[in-house]
């Protein structure tokens, strides 16, 4: 059995080695945090209002940007990449202890989102690399959404946990590396053309990502309210905020416009929610095995 850090407790799981499912342990008097869910309709309303009142991209100046240099990269590094790396680390250590596959998938999704966000947002500020940066960030988001949708409650045997986790995380980092090289080398079709806007390919990737995050959020919301799990509550909210943030980019007029910043704020909050979900799992008492 692989050695793990015993200072990191096991997450709140049932006696069968999985997160609470319908019919499992239901804490008496469980009440979800309404404050945590409040931003969801607020962000949806703001994006709708901005989409109605802002002029179409064709009426904006060529190459128009509404953001100081490197501000977006700094914010993504702090609120998306760092939180994603923390979630990936905690999920990995927990997976090695429990064998709960969803932890490995959550960690892989977080690693994909964190690594592509930090690379893409900083590259986008370099001369001539705006398209490459956008390509990396958007493709990484699609990859992360696929991992989240693939979440399952299957428990892996101890002997395969370490090799499987190494393969998963190494695969994500290899994908990020190859995607970066291909984007910088112009091997990936254009996602964004300065002065023209986003291409159909980018719209397809963003739309797919937003849809997958939304579907994952709904599935985990159903499981959350059936099992009354705080962990799944913050997890489905995180997925919902990320879906809204991705959808906002889909409707953006120009880099850094009000819709873009609304979406980015939603993604930043989603990153905090992901971290809250993982940490909440360790603060709940463990039910005894039946």
Q: Can you characterise this structure?
A:
By secondary structure, the protein is mainly alpha-helical. It has one domain: Rhopdopsin 7-helix transmembrane proteins (Up-down Bundle). It is built from nine helices and two strands. It has helices at residues 34-37, 39-53, 71-98, 101-123, 130-149, 158-184, 200-227, 230-251, 258-280, and strands at residues 192-193, 197-198. A two-stranded antiparallel ribbon has the order 1-2. The longest helix is centred in the first third of the chain and has 28 residues, at 71-98. It starts with 33 loop residues before the first helix and ends in a 10-residue tail after the last helix.
Number of helices: 9
**Fold-level CATH name:** Rhopdopsin 7-helix transmembrane proteins
Main sheet attributes: strand count, strand direction, barrel closure: 2 strands, antiparallel
CATH architectural arrangement: Up-down Bundle
**Tally of strands:** 2
Note the beta-strand portion.
under 5%
The total number of structural domains is 1
Rg on CA atoms, Å: 19 Å
User: Which of globular, elongated, flat, extended, rod-shaped describes the shape?
Assistant: globular
Termini gap: 24 Å
Keywords, separated by commas or semicolons:
2 strands, disordered N terminus, Rhopdopsin 7-helix transmembrane proteins, 9 helices, mainly alpha, 290 residues, disordered C terminus, single chain, two-stranded antiparallel sheet
């Amino acid at each position: 059995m692989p050695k793990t850090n015993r200072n990191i407790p096991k997450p709140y799981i049932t006696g069968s080695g999985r997160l609470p499912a319908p019919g499992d342990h239901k804490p008496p008097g469980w009440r979800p945090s309404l404050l945590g869910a409040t931003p969801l309709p607020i962000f949806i309303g703001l994006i709708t209002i901005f989409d109605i009142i802002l002029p179409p991209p064709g009426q904006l100046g060529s190459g128009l940007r509404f953001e100081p240099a490197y501000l977006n990269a700094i914010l993504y590094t702090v609120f998306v990449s760092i939180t994603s790396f923390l979630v990936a680390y905690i999920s990995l250590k927990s997976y090695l202890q429990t064998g709960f596959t969803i932890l490995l998938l959550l960690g892989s999704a977080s690693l994909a989102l964190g690594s592509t966000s930090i690379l893409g947002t900083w590259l986008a500020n370099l001369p001539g690399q705006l398209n490459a940066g956008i390509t990396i960030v958007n493709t990484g988001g699609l990859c992360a959404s696929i991992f989240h949708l693939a979440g399952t409650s299957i428990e892996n045997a101890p002997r395969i946990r370490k090799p499987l986790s190494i393969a998963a995380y190494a695969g994500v980092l290899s994908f990020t590396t190859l995607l970066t090289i291909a984007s910088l080398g112009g091997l990936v079709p254009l996602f964004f053309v300065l002065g023209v806007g986003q291409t159909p390919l980018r719209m397809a990737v963003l739309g797919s990502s937003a849809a997958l995050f939304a579907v994952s959020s709904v599935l985990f919301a159903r499981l959350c309210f059936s099992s009354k799990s705080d962990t799944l509550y913050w997890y489905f909210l995180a997925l919902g905020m990320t879906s809204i943030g991705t959808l906002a980019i889909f409707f953006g007029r120009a880099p850094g416009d009000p819709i873009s910043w609304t979406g980015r704020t939603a993604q930043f909050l989603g990153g905090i929610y992901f971290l809250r979900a993982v940490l909440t799992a360790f603060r709940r008492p463990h039910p005894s095995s039946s």
